[in-house]
């Protein structure tokens, strides 16, 4: 009972702290975790699925264990876990900064800022490419950096928060379809897909309801999401495209090569005003998902309390 109450209070407090302060500029626990992953990869990497699966299982296990230890500290530990796992506030701040730079005619500044959001090559992006990259990242990361950790925090408390963040970080580091990571990163990518399956669809539903355009969002998801190479990113990006009346997708350059992403949505490509609308929508979805996660955590706790 004490753990359940601590998880509920900590989830609420950690969400509030993220909303107030965003990600710390130095010493972020996820960055420390990523440094450990990168260091161990240099030693353990092999072009092999089995080795990659062991690598993923090891680091996700460390994340879950860190959550178990955090839970033993009570609500303060769960608060720290939630604050570490969430990244929605900083995501939206960067989105606003990109739009501000574009409105001021500072395309170079906008290009520099969008490089902090996406893994693609941003060096030659024009204004349209910057807006498209930013909106796609905001859509995907509304799920990955806000709704998904809240979902797993509601289900499993601090271990769910940090276990999920470990899986998502691994995917961002080694889950690429490049020649180097196609096999070694396969397990990391698939585990992240599984962890985000339900949260991505919950995000798409919230996007439709909160935007006031549920039908448009649903039609876009049904028509376009399945064409995207990611089973989850396509869902949330299509929902944002339908809700905002824009079109996403197209030629995308990554360090490992070029991908021709499918068209998502029937509208024109996004501009700075659409980017601002995407940021506003993301913030509203994050607030709604935070309230839902705390409520779900209370329900889960009550249900377990009454089990024989």
Mean pLDDT: 91
Spatial strand arrangement across the major sheet: 1-2
Total strands: 2
Helix content: over 70%
**N-to-C span:** 14 Å
Order of helices and strands: HHHHHHHHHHEEH
Low-confidence stretches: none
Oligomer: single chain
**Approximately how much beta-strand content do the residues carry?**
under 5%
Main beta-sheet strand count, sense and barrel state: 2 strands, antiparallel
> Structural class of the helices, strands and pairings?
mainly alpha
Number of domains: 1
Total DSSP helices: 11
- Radius of gyration over all CA atoms, rounded: 19 Å
Shape: globular
Subcellular location: Cell membrane
Transmembrane segments: 52-70
Organism: Gordonia liuliyuniae
Pathway: Cofactor biosynthesis; adenosylcobalamin biosynthesis
Features of the shown structure:
mainly alpha, 5% strand, two-stranded antiparallel ribbon, 308 residues, 11 helices, single chain
Give a nutshell description of this structure.
With 308 residues, the chain is mainly alpha-helical.
Describe this structure in words.
With 308 residues, the protein is mainly α. It has one domain (2-305). The chain is 73% helix and 5% strand. It has 11 helices and 2 strands; from the N terminus they run ααααααααααββα. The protein has helices at 2-21, 29-44, 49-72, 75-85, 88-103, 107-114, 127-174, 186-211, 214-224, 233-244, 272-305, and strands at 248-254, 257-264. The chain has a two-stranded antiparallel sheet. α3 (49-72) packs across α8 (186-211). It is globular and about 50 Å long. It starts with a helix and ends with a helix. The model has no long low-confidence stretch (mean pLDDT 91). This is Cobalamin biosynthesis protein CobD. InterPro entries: Cobalamin_biosynth_CobD/CbiB.
